[in-house]
Amino acid sequence: MTGQADAPHISVDHVNKRFQTASRAQLQALKDVSFAATRGEFISIVGPSGCGKSTLLYIVAGLLDASDGTVTVDDERVTGPSPERGVVLQNFSIFPWRRVIDNVAYGPEMRGASRQERRRIARQYLETVGLGEFAEYFPRELSGGMKQRIAIAQMLACNPSIFLMDEPFGALDALTREVLQEQLLRLWERDRKTVLFVTHSIDEAVLLSDRVIVMATRPGRIKEIVPIDLPRPRRAEEIRALPQFGTLRRHIWASIRAETLEMMQ
Amino acid sequence: MKPDSAAQAAPLPRPSSRPTLPAGLVRWLHAVARYYPVALILLLWELCSRIGLFDPLFVPALSDVLQTWYVEMFVTHDLLVHIAYSFGRASIGFAMGATVGIMVGILMGRVRAIESFVDPLISAIFPTPKLAIFPLMMVFLGIGDASKIALIFLGCFFPIVIATYAGVKNVDKYFIWNARTKGANSRQVMWTVVFPAAMPFVFAGLRTAMLTAFLLIVASELIAANEGLGYLIIFAQRTFNPTLMFAGVLTVSTMGFIADRLLQALGRRLFRWQEQAER
């Protein structure tokens, strides 16, 4: 099965997630979520706050358990986290007590690579994200954008076949964000990994993705899946100038906006 | 953002005709100069004694105290023996308290059953002044080393276990998640995430515990002992030897000061990665 080109790489089937809130009430965070990602596909997940998009990503990562339903990767059921599914979390979850190079070397270190071997791997991925000269710095000495690139290098060093990214550029200024989007595009075009990318930015989702999953809230569920049939390889300025880009952006925007207004009434 | 902070730290060479001292020496001089109020008080003390403002039976001159100190320390070596006793007991108690405190603190932070069992015990026992239990300990363990070490162990255990527990509880969930997605098993998460993240808290606990150890060793030796700095002080007082008494007090406070400074310096080295470590 795994060898087939159109077999899903990630398959999410009828996933429900309920949380027990502090007031003993049940919160339905996700309701009957199903979708599949083919190998090498870039999928973004957008939606209003509280729609469970991060929760969905954590379930695929194996960090949270689904209340019902299953997640399978290459026909194997996900029961816990694995370095095979690389994760970049929101706010700079790299380790402040490790130097940059030892942060990037973390994954290889955990699987028992020798000091020399893991340093070599770490150097390679630090170069990939353009931070080779900051190897011996501590994270606190770096800017937010640099920290997030280190988080990406840390994930790359595990050589995962899937990237799960939870608003990786959310806390960055607009300019840094655009530079990193461009870098991610180049990286994806080179390696063609399967990507699930949670974001607040519709612009970012359309720019990067093959498909955009639009989620609705209360309960969190998939509202629609929008195919992004823009040409590849993509250059950010060119893509943003295309008329289809505006059309897709407006379509998704309207979809989320209707949802948000409904919720407020 | 701040890759240039190293450059800021180095002072710019000022155009000056004066010969410049090496930077290390300058820093050291600055550190010493910071303690001028202490030097001032000591000077005032000596001055008051010299002009006869202090009765030497109550407050002997600093110079006499220092002379006695020198003799006791380097000629008869009596003081050295007392220091060795006090320091030995305090370090053993402290080391035991730290080891057990850190272990229990980590277990409390990670294992729910242990947390719910130990937490109320700590809340109940912690506020008890440990010195109040000392007579009880003497009944069980005698007036020798054992009762004092046990007292210091107890005094050190509580601040360390509480700090460690708080530190472990405070570890950001996302650090742990990040580690797990990079393939770390629970033992690796423990050593590479929970422990380093909790270290600054543990260290704060160690500092409190060390000062407690100094307090308790002197107090317990004042109460009952045949050697040690506390014994020396109370012996000097009972034999009307104020110079020796002051020499003992001076030794205790200097030891406490040096130990605390060393621990702080170690902390600065260990926690260079911390955001708030900049000053």
TrEMBL record, chain A:
<dbReference type="InterPro" id="IPR017871">
    <property type="entry name" value="ABC_transporter-like_CS"/>
</dbReference>
<dbReference type="GO" id="GO:0005524">
    <property type="term" value="F:ATP binding"/>
</dbReference>
<feature type="domain" description="ABC transporter">
    <location>
        <begin position="10"/>
        <end position="242"/>
    </location>
</feature>
<keyword id="KW-0547">Nucleotide-binding</keyword>
<dbReference type="InterPro" id="IPR003439">
    <property type="entry name" value="ABC_transporter-like_ATP-bd"/>
</dbReference>
<dbReference type="InterPro" id="IPR050166">
    <property type="entry name" value="ABC_transporter_ATP-bind"/>
</dbReference>
<keyword id="KW-0067">ATP-binding</keyword>
<dbReference type="GO" id="GO:0016887">
    <property type="term" value="F:ATP hydrolysis activity"/>
</dbReference>
<dbReference type="InterPro" id="IPR027417">
    <property type="entry name" value="P-loop_NTPase"/>
</dbReference>
<keyword id="KW-0813">Transport</keyword>
<dbReference type="InterPro" id="IPR003593">
    <property type="entry name" value="AAA+_ATPase"/>
</dbReference>
<dbReference type="Pfam" id="PF00005">
    <property type="entry name" value="ABC_tran"/>
</dbReference>
<comment type="similarity">
    <text>Belongs to the ABC transporter superfamily.</text>
</comment>
<protein>
    <submittedName>
        <fullName>ABC transporter ATP-binding protein</fullName>
    </submittedName>
</protein>
UniProtKB/TrEMBL annotation, chain B:
<feature type="transmembrane region" description="Helical">
    <location>
        <begin position="189"/>
        <end position="219"/>
    </location>
</feature>
<dbReference type="Pfam" id="PF00528">
    <property type="entry name" value="BPD_transp_1"/>
</dbReference>
<feature type="transmembrane region" description="Helical">
    <location>
        <begin position="239"/>
        <end position="259"/>
    </location>
</feature>
<keyword id="KW-1003">Cell membrane</keyword>
<dbReference type="InterPro" id="IPR035906">
    <property type="entry name" value="MetI-like_sf"/>
</dbReference>
<keyword id="KW-1133">Transmembrane helix</keyword>
<protein>
    <submittedName>
        <fullName>ABC transporter permease</fullName>
    </submittedName>
</protein>
<feature type="domain" description="ABC transmembrane type-1">
    <location>
        <begin position="83"/>
        <end position="263"/>
    </location>
</feature>
<dbReference type="GO" id="GO:0055085">
    <property type="term" value="P:transmembrane transport"/>
</dbReference>
<comment type="similarity">
    <text>Belongs to the binding-protein-dependent transport system permease family.</text>
</comment>
<dbReference type="GO" id="GO:0005886">
    <property type="term" value="C:plasma membrane"/>
</dbReference>
<keyword id="KW-0812">Transmembrane</keyword>
<feature type="transmembrane region" description="Helical">
    <location>
        <begin position="25"/>
        <end position="45"/>
    </location>
</feature>
<keyword id="KW-0472">Membrane</keyword>
<feature type="transmembrane region" description="Helical">
    <location>
        <begin position="149"/>
        <end position="168"/>
    </location>
</feature>
<keyword id="KW-0813">Transport</keyword>
<dbReference type="InterPro" id="IPR000515">
    <property type="entry name" value="MetI-like"/>
</dbReference>
<feature type="transmembrane region" description="Helical">
    <location>
        <begin position="90"/>
        <end position="109"/>
    </location>
</feature>
<feature type="transmembrane region" description="Helical">
    <location>
        <begin position="121"/>
        <end position="143"/>
    </location>
</feature>
